[in-house]
Amino acid sequence: MTRVGITFNKNHHLHDSLLNGYPCPENPQRIQNILEYLESSGLIDGEIFRFYDSIPASVMDILRVHTREYVDLIKACTRDPRQSPGNDVYVCPSSFDVTLHALGCVLKAGDLVISGECRHAYALIRPPGHHAGPDSCNGFCIFNNSGILARYMLEKKGLERIAIINIDAHASDGTYAAFEADPRVLCISMHQDQKTLYPFKGFIKDIGVRPAIGYCINMEMPTESGNPEYSLFYDEVAEKILDKFNPQLVILECGFDAYHKEPLAKLNLTVDGYYRIIFKLASKWNVVTLLEGGYHDDLGLLASVVLRALAGLENIKDEVDQIDLLASRHAKTRKEFNNNLSLLKARLEPYWGHI
Ligand SMILES: [Zn+2]
Predict the structure, then answer these.
(1) Is 131 known to be catalytic?
(2) Which residues belong to any copy of the Histone deacetylase domain (predicted)?
(3) Which of 61, 100, 130, 296 gives 56 a disulfide partner, CB atoms 3.0 to 4.6 angstroms apart?
(4) pLDDT at 323
């Protein structure tokens, strides 16, 4: 059995702000960087890792999460790219078509896993999706890729419990908006302290609404948080709740902007930090990983780390001396992290018991 299937939307380069005359960090070079790195690394062997083609998703799939009015707004913006459907979101004439192809890759990744063809899958897609809610979008996102996959699995494949985990530096506010009242979907977002970073949503106090109170979890990671803090959060909260929820599928919103070289955020994950969490997830559950943010030059390196972790291969040697990162961190960061972790545990105790 092929262990990890990979999909990517081949027309992603048609979604490019340069076509509108201005640059943006969310650009085609991101996936190009990943594909070139994977090719030169020789990692994709056709056995453990294999690329799969996909067909475009349909508008009906988008409507599993988004309103008809919102879909019409996006279409209207593609006809007049001077319009923007949200803050920091651009659209080009082909953007709607690009999103249908991206969603097709996402649904294919889910199908590969559910059918047993692959143990895990990785959809390398753009634009990202986790800031897109049912009727709004922000932050480079147009449609909520993870949410549409979750609803597709619930409605078409008969699944009953799905977890969506966000490891992007930015809070997964669009996903939260889509599932805050849906107890079939457990949303866990670990992201940079929302007093210090866009979208300034996703606070510890935000845990969903009836009938899904406790099923949305937001962990605010203080600036400069790195591998130790992420591991502690995963081990002490995320994994314990996942064990209790027992998802049939995990969808990972995997942004690479929590990495220590990311210019748009202030976190310190290294390849080891990403590897450890994804390895642990993949050792227990079927995981469909989706590319979200990340705007530095190491996206290819990190994508290869994701693949290694999903397949259970050894990690590559970490590229930095983590002592440097630890030494640069203020004691204030750990103190703030410990405080946030305690607050979160107390907030969740009525719904998940003592963790
Ligand atoms: Zn991000």
Answers:
(1) yes
(2) 25-298
(3) 100
(4) 60
